[in-house]
Every structure is written in C-alpha cells, then in structure tokens.
Specification:
The complex is a heterodimer. Chain A is mainly α. Chain A has twelve helices and no strands. Chain A has one domain. The longest helix of chain A is centred in the middle third of the chain and has 31 residues. Helix content of chain B is 36%, strand content 28%. Chain B contains eleven helices and 14 strands. Classes of the chains: A mainly alpha, B alpha/beta.
Chain lengths: 277, 309
C-alpha cells in the first residue's frame, strides 16, 4: 500500500447545474430499485396488461369475450379492473418505495448524501423520481405496448389506439403521483425499510377493505372514497369510458389531495431528518 | 490575524434529554485544529452539525464566514469524513467516489480524474473495482477520507479519521493531512487518541460534556492552567533530602516518592517552582539528575482541565 503526497491547487471548477446533481440521485435510486423482486413484479404486471389487451382488443376474441360487442375504449380498462393487477401495483409500491428514504437512514448512507451540496428537496425529488419511474414502467409501458399491438395486429383504429394510450398515460401518471407520495411519506417516517414496506402495503390494502366493509354495511358507494385504490380506479374507468361507482372528479380530488399531503409530510420529515448514531 | 474557519457561539444540540452540545463556543483558526475529548464528549455531534446533518436547537455556527444552515453553499467547500462506517456497499470504490463527485456537481470526465487521484492518494487504486461491501474497516476508512478530499474542499472535517488503520497507515495519513494543510487546506480533526492530534498540530479545542473547555495553542492552554497543581517528577540520589526541601516551598502542595531515587512534587506555581529548582541545582546542595514535567503532554492537560483523577 502506498499513499502518494497530494498536489492540490485551490482552483475554482465550474459545477454542473442542480438538475444534473438531482439526476445522479435518480439514476442511482433507479438502479437500486431494479432488483429481482421488482423486475418480477414488473414482468407480471406487463403480462397481465398484455394478456388482457390482447384478449379484449383482438377481433374475434374480443367479440367472444365481450358477448358480441366490438372493441371500444372501455376494452382497454380491463387491467385496472383486475384485482391481481392492483395487488401487484400495491406490492411494487411497497417493494420499490419502502427503502427509498428509510434504507438510507437505516444504513446511515444518508450522511453521505447530506454532506453534498444538495437540498432536502433535491434529495426527496431524486428519491421520488426513482420510485416513480419504476411505477411508471409498471403502469404506462405495458399499456402503450398493448395499444400498439391492438393497432398493428388487432385492426383497432388509430384514433382509438391513441385515445387509449392517452388514458394509460393519464392514469399512469396519476397512479405514480399518488403511490410515490404515499411511499415517500411512509418511508420517511421510519428507519426500518421493512416497517415502511409493511405500512405502504397495509395502508393501501386496509383502506380498500375498510371501504368495502363500509360500503357493504351502509350500501353507499361514497365509502369507496376512503380507498386510494378505488379513487384511482374511478378516475381510470372514467378516462377509459366506463361509468365509475363514484364521481371521477371527486376521486381525482381525493387522489391529488393525498398526493400533495403525503408529499408535504415527506418533505417536512426529510428536512428535519437527523442521523444520530 | 486571518479570519476564523469555523465559529461556534453557544451551539446547543439535544438528543431528547441528553445534551450533545451544551452551549459550545469556540473559534477554529486557519490550518489544522485538533478537536480533542473523550468518547461521548460531543465531537461527532459538532461535526454532524457542521456537515448539515443535525440541526442546532440553539446557538449558531458559521463555516468559512457563512451560516452552517446554508448547506448547498457551504458543502462545495467542505469535505466531511464521518466516524460512521456507512458507505454505499453495493458500489465499487471507483463508482462510489465518482457518484459522490457527480453529486458535488462535477461533470463525468472531471469526476473520473478526481476519482483516480483520490484513490491514489489513499492507496486504494489497486482495489478500485472491488465492491465496498468486501472492504476491511481500514480500507473503508480510507475510502471515507478519499471522498472527503476528492472534491478539493477548502475545509476538511475529519471525525476520528485514523480509527481502524494500521500504524503504517496512520503515519502516512498524518503525513497526508499535514501536506493538505501546507497546500492551503483547513482541517478540523477529532480524536480521542491524543498523541495523534499532538503530532498534527499544537492548535486545539478541547471538548468535554458538549462544551469547549479550552481552545488555542497547546502551550497557551498549559499557561492557562499553570495556576492549578502541576506535577513534576525529579530524579535524585537523595530523595529524602529533596523531599524535605520541596516540602518547605510555599507553592508545593504535595510530595510523594513513587520509586527509588524518584520524587514527585505538585506545585501551584510552576514558574516559581522551576526557578527555585534551578537555584537549588546551581547551589549543589542536593543533586538532581532529571526533571520531567508530567503535564507536558496533551493527555495530562486534558486530565487537568476536566479534573479527572
């Protein structure tokens, strides 16, 4: 082992702009989040979307399944109405988002981020973008691929295919904002990624169960607003031309409200985060 | 006199009911300053506040003339080597340094150049492609030092930087720190192994229970404490006669005989004591073969200031 004498000069080097520093956090976060479990969940989600789009938009098959109806915009909404797909989305949110902040605090590597010229907002944005990109792949990419398949193979009109793509992008972005905000908040509230993962999964699933129970007991669909997943589903159904059980506008308000509130809590938490050994 | 590098005024940090910093007030001049104190004294808390990782409950801190609460502006000029061994274990040493340099705002090519240089400086260029998870504690320590200095900061905060290093590594890094200081860097280095700091600098801030209990030149600090009991060991062939002589001096508070031909005296006035001792030696009445001030090292100064036995 040798240690050479340094030859330093006090020089001023042009630094890259802030967004490029944030990009480093995003890319590193994305690399970490593309682990085996998340890849499996992404593949399963893609298979569900792909399979359902093919089944519901291929001439002949579509008419067989939908009882003689042709391919419509509502045919593309089927993934969002699948409990398995929504369960996979919940699992992916928990898996990808749990360690986003809690992991850095747990292994104290957050000390290295925080000793760099980045603000808590930069850090949180970078972490959120990494989680969000994974969710975006889950929600948007298979949908767009399905629309292209429907257009090129299934003889779906260009207008319908593009409209469906727009709906996938719209719902996908909304889902990303909602679930990323929730994941960041719960991850920033603990230093144990396992707890954060359980909390993310638990909050989404228990809210869904609670909404169903209240709906069953009262017979009122208003109870569905309690569940973020039901709110997301209502907006998705509306965009895909299906009449939702609750008002899509109200559900959109709830989703955006949750996203803003959870994002704000996460920001306040990260701003005050301290690493005490 | 040059502007201070770091100024702390009444800095207070609480961990629940425990005080990490308790009205810490000190000024750190340019060059190397040692932050010395026992484990739990508040050294790491002070560094983490400087690095923007902890928030003060009261008081203020400024780094290079700017409030420590402005991390983005300050962190370009500060390199922090934390005591904790936390690294991004999934990365190789090269990618780790390169990533942190990109976070510092260096473009990719510049980051590569600086990564190469920093790894060379800490002697890790041979293991640059190995994942950090497989690094020994000593190697991790060197990676932490490399990341602290790779972006050419004006101020280095080194929290127990020599922990886990072998003796050869320690000597070489002490040399590295000295050279960094010679080239215009300011360094605040903490240690509870006092001789390590003593080898680097005479400029120290002593901390105990979250407070700076003394600051300045080691010799000046000794002058400050000269009014307090000062221990001197004398070697003589006539310990009984010397003991009787010393016991008669007004400022000598205690005389003991720890071994044959050895007398240990405690005095409240070292200057007067040494003057009188010189006269005694010159008179030849009692032969004195050796004089050893037992407070001549940092450890002894610290013991006195913290009133530890």
């Amino acid at each position: 082992m040798t240690i050479a004498a340094p030859r330093y000069r006090l020089t001023s080097v042009e630094r890259e702009p802030r967004w490029k520093r944030v990009r480093v956090i995003v890319l590193e976060g994305l690399m970490r989040r593309l682990g085996a479990l998340n890849i499996v969940l992404l593949v399963l989600g893609s298979l569900i979307v792909g399979l359902e789009v093919v089944l519901f938009t291929t001439p002949g098959l579509a008419q067989l399944i939908s009882g003689g109806h042709g391919v419509a915009l509502s045919s593309f909404a089927t993934p969002y109405e699948s409990i398995v797909y929504l369960l996979l989305a919940t699992m992916l949110t928990a898996s990808a988002g749990a360690s986003s902040v809690a992991g850095d605090v747990a292994d104290r590597s957050i000390t290295l981020y925080l000793s760099r010229p980045i603000t808590p907002a930069d850090y949180l944005f970078g972490k959120g973008a990494a989680v969000g990109l994974v969710l975006l792949i889950f929600f948007v990419v298979p949908g767009i691929a399905g629309c292209l398949f429907a257009f090129f193979v299934g003889n779906v009109s260009i207008t319908l295919a593009v409209t469906a793509m727009g709906a996938f992008v719209g719902v996908g972005l909304l889902a990303v904002v909602l679930l990323t905000g929730l994941a960041l908040m719960l991850s920033s509230l603990t230093r144990r990624p396992l707890f954060a993962g359980a909390a993310i999964f638990g909050v989404l699933v228990s809210a869904e169960i609670l909404a169903d129970l209240i709906q069953s007991a009262t017979g009122s669909n208003q109870a569905l607003y309690v569940s973020p997943i039901e709110d997301l589903l209502a907006v998705a159904q509306s965009l895909f031309g299906v009449t939702p059980s609750i008002s899509a506008t109200g559900a959109l308000g709830v989703v955006l409200g949750i996203a803003v509130a959870t994002g704000a809590v996460a920001y306040l938490r990260v701003q005050r985060v301290e690493v005490v050994q | 006199m040059s502007d201070p590098v770091v100024v702390a005024v009444g800095a207070t940090k609480r961990y629940g009911e425990v005080l990490g910093l308790n009205g810490f007030t000190a000024t750190f001049p340019p060059g190397i300053t040692g932050l010395v104190g026992p484990n739990g004294a508040g050294k790491s808390t002070f560094f983490r506040v400087l690095a923007g990782q902890l928030h003060l409950d009261a008081g203020s801190l400024s780094i290079l003339g700017r409030p420590a609460a402005e991390p983005v502006r300050s962190h370009h000029e500060v390199g922090y080597c934390p005591e904790s061994p936390a690294l991004y274990d999934w990365m190789t040493a090269e990618r780790f340094l390169s990533t942190l340099l990109r976070l510092d705002g260096f473009e990719a090519e510049e980051a590569r150049t600086r990564t190469d240089r920093a790894l060379r400086e800490v002697g890790l260029e041979q293991v640059r492609d190995r994942r950090l998870a497989g690094f020994s504690r000593g190697m991790r320590q060197r990676v932490k030092i490399a990341q602290a200095l790779a972006h050419d900061p004006a101020l280095l905060l080194l929290d127990e930087p020599l922990n886990a290093l072998d003796p050869v590594g320690r000597v070489r890094l002490l040399d590295l720190f000295a050279r960094l200081a010679e080239s215009g860097r300011h360094i605040i280095v903490s240690s509870h192994v006092l001789y390590e700091v003593e080898r680097l600098t005479d400029q120290i801030v002593m901390v105990s229970n979250g407070r700076a209990i003394a600051a300045g030149d080691l010799h000046q600090i000794r002058d400050l404490i000269d009014r307090r009991p000062h221990t001197v060991e004398l070697t003589t062939a006539s310990p009984r006669a010397l003991g009787q002589e010393l016991a008669g001096w007004t400022d000598v508070t205690d005389v003991s005989f720890p071994g044959p031909e050895r007398v240990v005296a405690q005095t409240r006035a070292p200057d007067t004591f040494y003057r009188a001792l010189g006269e005694l030696a010159r008179s030849g009445r009692i032969p004195v073969r050796g004089v050893q001030g037992m407070d001549d090292n940092l450890e002894a100064v610290f013991r006195l200031l913290t009133e530890q036995p």
